[in-house]
Amino acid sequence: MSSAPRAGAYPADWVLENQMGPNPLWLVEELTATMDLRPGMRVLDLGCGRALTSVFLAREYGVHVTAADLWIDPSDNWERICAAGVEDSVVPLRVDAHDLKFAEGYFDAVVCVDAYEYFGTDHWFLPSLLRFVRPGGQIGVVTPGVRRELAGRAPEHLARWWDWEFNGYHTPQWWRRLWESSGKVDVDRADFLPDGAAHWLAWEEAVLETGPGERTAGVVALLRADAGETLEIVRVVASRKPSEAGDGSGRVSLWAWPVAEPGVLADRLALPAYPRSAAYDPAWVMANVMGPHPLWLMEWLTGAMRLEPGMRVLDLGCGTAVTSVFLAREFGVHVTAADLWTAPGDNWRRVREVGTGAGTVMPLSVEAHELPFAAGYFDAVVSVDAYHYFGTDVRYLPTLARCVRPGGQIAMAAPGTRVDFDAEPVPEHLTPWAAEADFWTFRTAQWWRRNWERSGVVTVETADALEDGRREWLLWNRACAEFADPEWTAGPAREDPIVADTERLLTLTRVVASRD
Hints:
Structural class: alpha/beta
Number of helices: 21
Low-confidence stretches: none
């Protein structure tokens, strides 16, 4: 197709095999020709279908693409992405357009090809989508449309083929008014694609020639009967207006920042066993802490792992993403920072505060039992002070392992015990804590080994307790009690059970396994 030379460079049989409507590569080329996409940008391909457009965006513009779709299995898209050689630039996810889980302001642009008409016609959708686009970022949509508004009435010459979904087809002017009414965008363009109806018909005729298909035959008959009178292809491009509240780049923390003389916290918390952790501002860690020192745990955990630059790593239950930053900076890996309870927008601001070195971090809101990832996508999964909350059922690990490539690692570090209290009575000094459900997620390293081995999907490489686990836990909690936000120290950072545990039954556990 002369009007889309880039699209013409892709194998026709590949496009035909994976098409789901008008030629997606022609549509995305015509759309992006009017957008400002630059290498390294983060782009959401919303309603990506079989990810052909995502492959095109990554190859032609050098952008990093999140290929999001509800109906197409991300595992199938991952196979296409890998076959196209863009696995380092495209992340496939299962996503509902009305329930997006991204960080506010994360994307530089959103592209939507032949999908927006299914979910974006109400007045509320665009503002909800724009939350995830940085101020000044663009949103571009290309969709089937009409030359005049039909108000739900099918033209007589098209009535026999009319379908309810055609009610989502509108004129460029209609889309312009809808988007401008939000007050949140400047519409840069709202028009028809040149010769859109003719190209659409030519494509559907080519698809029909590859084999009989009732749907395609109906579309061909529809377009032929219309002869360009009603149906067209609409393109809309807009820029998000600057935010009145700023770009949200100011300091963010879970708790009030600790008050301490310079160097006091660093001297108190510098341990020879954790040289990498010592490079991070302990006040920053303390202001964002949710349990035992997360960087100590992560440094100990990754000491038993094989992480290499460029790997894809899931930080599951990342909390405030302190561990995600550590992984990206220390190992140069690409981290998906997944948590259910911490807002991904806040985590994105934390990430930008401190930077990620050679690695990257993508914050997401994720339920551990409903993972939206492709099979085999990650090289490794890590979970610090979180896995015990959702992974004690032996049936959970196979769900998680599905997202890891064969030979990839799964690793967790969490509070634990040196005695299995399912078999032994709880000592009196721990009974106040044992009254809480959380206590019963504390397990021995041997218990975790048995649990993981029973799953039949991994080979356990390491399962042990931190030699000085109780002492380090106590050291951290005492520092928090002295310097951290009182709201924190009155709650999760309680020292009493650990102080009382002179029998040293409480510890920190680590498990590392390879996926079979």
